[in-house]
Amino acid sequence: MASILNKIAFKNFFNYYGDYEENTYDLEEGVNIIVADNGAGKSKFFNAFLWLFYDQILDSDTKQRVNVRNSGVKILSDKAKNETVINDRVECGVMLEYTRGTRYKYQIIKSFSATKINDSISDERSWQFLINDVEVNKTELVLHKYKPVYDESEKRQIIDHLIMPAFRKYSFLQGEEVDDIIDFGKRESIEEAVENLTDIKKYEKIHDLLSEFKEKAFKDLQKQLKANNAENERFDEAVKEKENIEEQLDHENQKLKEWQATYDTAEEEKNELDKQYASAEKRKELDDKLKPIRKKLREKKEEFETFLDRINNRFFDGNFAWIAMGFEDEVQKYRNLKEQFVERRYEKRALQNVEENPNEYFHFLPENSPDSVSLQNMIDDEHCYVCNREAKKGTAEHNNIVKLKNRPKDKQTEKPFVKNDLNNFFGDLQINAQPFYNKFDSIRDSVIKTKEKEVELKESIDKLKKQIKSIEDDRNSIMIAGYDAELSAKEIISNYNGAIRRREKANGKINDIIIPKINTFKKQIKAIEQEIKDLNKSNNIPTGYNQNYEVLNDLEEASQKAKDRVFDAMIQLLEKHANIHFKNLIKNNDLTGGILKFEKNPNGSINFNYIDSNGNTVHGSSEGFQRMKKFSVVMAIISANNSVYNYPLLADAPISAFGEGFTEGFFEAISDVFPQSIVLVKELYKREDEMKINELGKRLLKDGKVKTMYVNHVPENAEQIELVTSQTKLK
Which residue range or ranges hold the Rad50/SbcC-type AAA domain (predicted)? Predict the structure, then answer.
């Protein structure tokens, strides 16, 4: 009878603010998907089941499971706490309904109440918490009226029937926990899985009992032999020889344990490093790509800094003359001012000359005005072009022009005629400014080209940064938390190979030296025991002692072989089912060929490898690929069971390391194994989309195997005390 969750509801549970009716998810047999971005309630949803099964929650701050009794202030909705006045009480709880079989339906409510005694909403001392007794109700499906269950053992049984404790580790998964479900480096981890699927525990008990009985039977036989062969030297020698060999056998068994411990340690280290080694070569490849790009980025940054330093120079460099930009009209203004200045200057100079030599300069224009060439033309033409009249040779007018042409130059030191003569200043200004106003036509093009160069450099830097970010993201996607900061890819490969060498050395010691010795000693002991029995044939020993020992010896060997046979058969069955599921999981990816291979180690642990068609181990796979291998084994443990699996899959972010192909394969495969799946994911979320799901989410929405799909929402930019999770049911 499969257990199927019909409904889960929350009341003021974390950011599920409000009563149960406002925070209800109706679920169905088959695949149920809840899509939520970070902070939108995935882990909080999962915490409801932790509370249900273990009275715990996962503390998002410490990433540790903590008891609900010590975490009430964190569990209770901040909005509900903020709205509660002092001395008032607020309730927090989760409610689940599930059916089992075709007759009964169960309702389970776990809750607590909190009374506010101080203003601080986040201080544990501001609240008094009361954990309510778990409330369990049941009803027959045809009646739809719940009746309370009062017996505590029945309550526990009803909770356990949702997912039995022995199967929770395969059916109740959170993120990376799938990586730790099966530790193939530890025999007990494999045995636990096999124990849940077979009666191997009974074989072990039988074997242990028969070993004990066999030892006791031999001691009884030995006493009889000694009593009846007191004078038989060979018998005494045989017994001593047997004891000596048994002592050596114990010594070898002790060495076996030590080397098995060495093997286990190396195997554990290898398995731990395998998470990194599987990606170490890829990381190294990415690191090699990063080096030249980072160097190029440094060079571009240096070029950009130099470029920025030179921009200021372009304002004053005559080759660029940027400072003149926008001063085109100033040239004409300067000319006008210069003309006014020259005119006024000539006036002041002329006045000074007249004042100093009134008789000489009274009849004459200022020096050099008109110029000598013009005056000579007027003398030659006998015409004054100043007053536009004739000046015939010999006339007073003509003589006046000649006199003006021959006027004396002032040989005296020129006296200043203005307080500040700026003639040279304006001249120098014009000369110095000439390279700048000659560049007026090219300044804008120069600025535009410089801006284009700046944009080009920035784009180059941004492009390089994006390349680095992309490669680093790829690199980070194959990191294993806690190791990247400590170990480089080269160190990982070195340590990994070192662990393999130590493991192989231990394996060689065990298989090539110790186990052959142990087998030899066992054969020798068996031969001596046979010799002792032969020596005893002539003695008067009750036949029951010999028969008892022989029968128990045969039974002990048979039980050991039966136990090993059951274990080996189950491992082969797990391998078969794991490969079936693995192929289904990866069918939407580009991976080709290869199978999962389980190989039994001397200590009983399992090597779990992915090999190609030539039997070579495949390395360098992504974290998602590694997790997919583990998940295929989890599914194999379930499907290898002879009976139908009767419990739902509850999974929080199990596909966080998957690509789109793996994700699609995951949802297709789980429906073939679990009667119901409730999967919380963010990978299908797309903020910009109207439905808030990406294209893969929309494909899954149309998939007949997907029975319900919800999208969680939280208000944008909401403060913690206003954080509320709502949901939209898409299907």
Answer: 7-248
Kind of pairing between the strands at 383-384 and 389-390: antiparallel
At 552, list the tokens. 């128990």
Q: Which of 629, 586, 593 is closest to 611 using CA atoms?
A: 593
Q: What is the pLDDT of residues 608-639, one digit of tens each?
A: 677 776 766 665 455 556 667 777 777 777 77
Residues whose CB falls within 8 Å of the CB of residue 115, separated by 6 or more in sequence, listed in order: 87, 88, 89, 127, 128, 130
Instruction: Tell me the domain boundaries of the chain.
Output: 3-163+647-729, 230-321+439-535, 341-434
Rg value, the chain, Cα = 49
Question: Do the beta carbons of residue 710 and residue 729 sit within 8 Å?
Answer: yes
* Architecture in CATH of 230-321+439-535: Orthogonal Bundle (1.10)
- Mean pLDDT confidence for 12-31: 92
Give the 3-state secondary structure of residue 493.
helix
User: What one-character DSSP code corresponds to residue 186?
Assistant: -
Nearest 5°: CA angle at 201, between 196 and 203?
A: 135
> The pTM is what?
0.56
453, 456, 457, 463 alpha-carbon torsion, rounded to 10°: 180
Tracing tokens 């391998």 back to the chain, one arrives at 575
Q: Which of 21, 20, 90, 82 is nearest to 48 (CA)?
A: 20
